[in-house]
Amino acid sequence: MSENEQAARAAPRTLSLTISNQPPESALYLVATPIGSARDITLRALDVLNTADILAAEDTRNLRHLLDIHGIAVRGRRMIAYHDHNADRARPAILQALEEGLSVAYSSDAGTPLVADPGYRLARDVAEAGFKVRALPGPSAALAALSVSGLPSDRFLFVGFPPSAAGARRRWIESWAETQATVIAFESPRRVKQLLENLCEIDANRPTVICRELTKKFEEVMRGSAGELAGAIPDEGLRGEIVVLFGHPEEKPVDEADLREVLSELLGRMSVKDAATEAAARFGMPRREAYALAVAMQKEA
Fold first, then answer.
1. 76 pLDDT band (50/70/90 cuts)?
2. Could you tell me which residue ranges the RsmI HTH domain spans (predicted)?
């Protein structure tokens, strides 16, 4: 092989990618946008942002900035702001555009629309009105954090943002604390220490991962127990965008007397199979064990 051939093989190739000019069909397109690095956007997202008749966004300034980065011109197209404070006023204009056979691209500030943003009502109303809703998959802070966390991913629960009031936040933690799944939450960087301290009141040993500034220059992943990380975070909190993940709770030994009491109540109104399933879910235990005891209790009766 000649030196020129070796150099050509070693040098990375510059790919020539063309953004489509083909107009999309009339539909509401839910466009996932980068959570940090602008290059994480998909080619299909750029296609739709370039050709949709109407551009809607949680913040149109953020969308304009993203379009500028990728060289996509607005070309006089209508841009509609759609967020928590104006959703009821803005939704009719989007429905009217679809009624006229136009295409609408909707993007949140970052990540996948409808995940912790106001787009779900828009998608619901568009679908109920008989128009098409199309998802353009892409970046998601929740799934990116789950991928790097090292926590079990076979079953997970996204719980959004915690309430800001202390009492409501404690009740919110109690609502998922015993769930046998990896729990994913978004949190303000200034309140993340407080969140962990509240969890420590219930389970200081809970496996915990904090993902900060995912896909950005100062990306950081912190791992430890809830107590360890609460102690490591300064009183003023952290900086940047935060995703917090909690592993499965510790399995606690089931008191047979408590299990018998629950099964006795359940067997009075459902089958052995259903009672065992319900009891196993309540106690976080294998269903076969609850089923065996339920069968034994029926024989005793």
1. very high
2. 255-298
